[in-house]
């Protein structure tokens, strides 16, 4: 069953249960409310009748006639009883035996009167005392319970009709809302199918709000990352085959030339030197590719421990200083003490050396390595005063076999990124205030 129908059925079922429970509670309380309201109305009408004949003795025939006119006008069932004389003064109820039975059975002085029982009928009762100088009389007003039950049934019918209309409107509204909710999810499913089939160019924006929009953005970002990853993998294999084939062809050419006697004497020696150099370059490429593969897949290659950033920067300076002196580049260090992170010190040192040696190769006169406290993390900024990096190259510089000007294997920065990310850090490029490139390595602080 589709999610839209499941949600509609769930909302409808919940609404029916709530409205049924509410209806049962209202129905159970309705009769009590009607009885109380009827008693209040009887009291109001009784007070009005009493005001008409205020302080008049009901033994007077004229007063009785005036009272009967009012009773007929209000369509009331009443009778009057005198306590002192223990006599029934008058009654609009034809069956006098029922009235005498009530006089005997019920206490007229009781404040809360129960329902009075007739032969086949029960009555709601309101008693109003009338005090005269010579006697104490009671005016009793009655309403058959059957009349209230008829009102109750009428209200129940209306309530059921309102409930049915409410349920119909709620079902239609829930169907509309669930359709708006489910439609983006359905479209999102087709987007995922496109990603599965690698149709990244056919991805479309989905109109949605709230969490669904956030999921849609995450899916779009995932598709972009996956597209970039697939493209980088293709580029990787193309570049890897090129980088490996070039030294192999050189080695093969000199080896065949030496074997066939084409190169002799000094040329043979030069060929052997070139072969050794190319084998060394080939070995370096293979070792870096193996390291990248291990960083991506093996857990035990990375050993976490607490690292003092000042000490790490100092080690980087010591190793890079001979290269910098040879190039005529001065190194400047700003590394405060007591800044600690977690990571593999040897690996992070290797990552920093890859970046620093690249910077020395492109710097004009100076490089700056500084440690900056940025709240929840520390940043290691490595910047130079060289020509900088082209913007189109900045986005893919950390991909494998992507080389800048005068680059070597194209794997150094990819290795640096893999090492930094294994330390739960990030690495990015920016423009340096010195005029060249600025690499920013950010690491979470140790707790």
UniProtKB/TrEMBL annotation:
The chain crosses the membrane at residues 6-30, 155-177. SUPFAM superfamilies: ATPase domain of HSP90 chaperone/DNA topoisomerase II/histidine kinase, Homodimeric domain of signal transducing histidine kinase. PROSITE patterns: HAMP (PS50885), HIS_KIN (PS50109). Residues 239-447 form the Histidine kinase domain. It is found in: Cell membrane. Keywords: ATP-binding, Cell membrane, Kinase, Membrane, Nucleotide-binding, Phosphoprotein, Transferase, Transmembrane, Transmembrane helix, Two-component regulatory system. Its EC number is 2.7.13.3. It catalyses: ATP + protein L-histidine = ADP + protein N-phospho-L-histidine. It comes from the Bacteria. Residues 179-231 form the HAMP domain. CDD domains: HisKA. One of its GO terms (molecular function) is ATP binding. It is a multi-pass membrane protein. InterPro entries: HAMP_dom, HATPase_C_sf, HATPase_dom, His_kinase_dom, HisK_dim/P_dom, HisK_dim/P_sf, HssS/ArlS-like, Sig_transdc_His_kin-like_C. GO terms for cellular component: plasma membrane. It is an enzyme of class 2 (transferase). Gene3D superfamilies: 1.10.287.130, 6.10.340.10, Histidine kinase-like ATPase, C-terminal domain. This is histidine kinase. It comes from Saliterribacillus persicus.
